Amino acid sequence: MFAAAALFVFMCLTATSHADHHHHPCHTPNMTGLMSVTSLKGELKAVGAFTYDSMGRKLRFRSNESHPVNTSVGLDLLMFFDEGIFYEIDSKNQSCEKKKLHCSLHPLDIPDDAKFHSTVHSGSPSIEGEGLTLNIWTGDFTDSKGHYIMSVTMGCLPISAHYFSETTPFLISNMEVEMEIKDPDLLLVPSFCQGLPLEETPEGTVNSFLHEFM
Ligand SMILES: *[C@@H]1O[C@H](CO)[C@@H](O)[C@H](O)[C@H]1NC(C)=O
Ligand SMILES: *[C@@H]1O[C@H](CO)[C@@H](O)[C@H](O)[C@H]1NC(C)=O
Ligand SMILES: *[C@@H]1O[C@H](CO)[C@@H](O)[C@H](O)[C@H]1NC(C)=O
Ligand SMILES: *[C@@H]1O[C@H](CO)[C@@H](O)[C@H](O)[C@H]1NC(C)=O
What we know:
Blueprint: H1 2-13, E1 31-39, E2 44-53, E3 58-63, E4 76-80, E5 85-90, E6 95-100, E7 115-123, E8 131-140, E9 146-153, E10 158-165, E11 170-178
Antiparallel strand pairs: 1-2, 1-11, 2-3, 3-4, 4-5, 5-6, 7-8, 8-9, 9-10, 10-11
């Protein structure tokens, strides 16, 4: 666990730019949708609903407890990437933890320093309604220790993100995405979370969206 955390710090700090001058990553729009997180060992880690504000760079993700899987994690996260903080919310007992976000990598937007890889046609490119054209973007965590591959539609809706590291490779897929914020209240800090002090981060711990599943 410690090693994984240490590795991730490194990955976050060294996600260096290989920016292709001809292709800059698109930025995703405001969205509401469903997300699933599966480890590449076949464990379903979480399924839940997300709300994403692309301008404000805010993300809410709540895993659905009626998809109980042995390995799944019950999560309610509200992340503010610009401020570098997030909340772990427990609505049942109205409790909340406010924490520092160490790494802003997340599956709903392409990092600015991602590298364009290719355009692919899933399904059939010639039969109407039977194909999907995707742009693939990649980025390195370190020279060889990890990388991600993200695919987005031509309109920049995120389809999937693969995170490959030495520790826990996993796949995040998005479904039923709509280009609007259906419930803006989900992006507001709940009253019972307001005014909380920032939790201290134990030495060696890294907080990020991805770390919630590691
Ligand atoms: C995205 O949502 C935010 C928050 O509701 C809103 O301020 C912004 O105008 C929206 N952007 C677009 C392009 O609709
Ligand atoms: C959770 O999943 C169940 C079964 O798929 C669904 O009926 C329910 O609406 C979901 N709840 C939420 C909050 O998404
Ligand atoms: C749940 O996972 C734990 C550890 O991963 C394992 O030891 C246990 O056998 C699993 N239980 C079931 C019911 O699959
Ligand atoms: C809220 O519930 C969670 C688990 O259900 C527990 O870990 C936490 O300590 C509880 N918090 C409070 C303030 O009761």
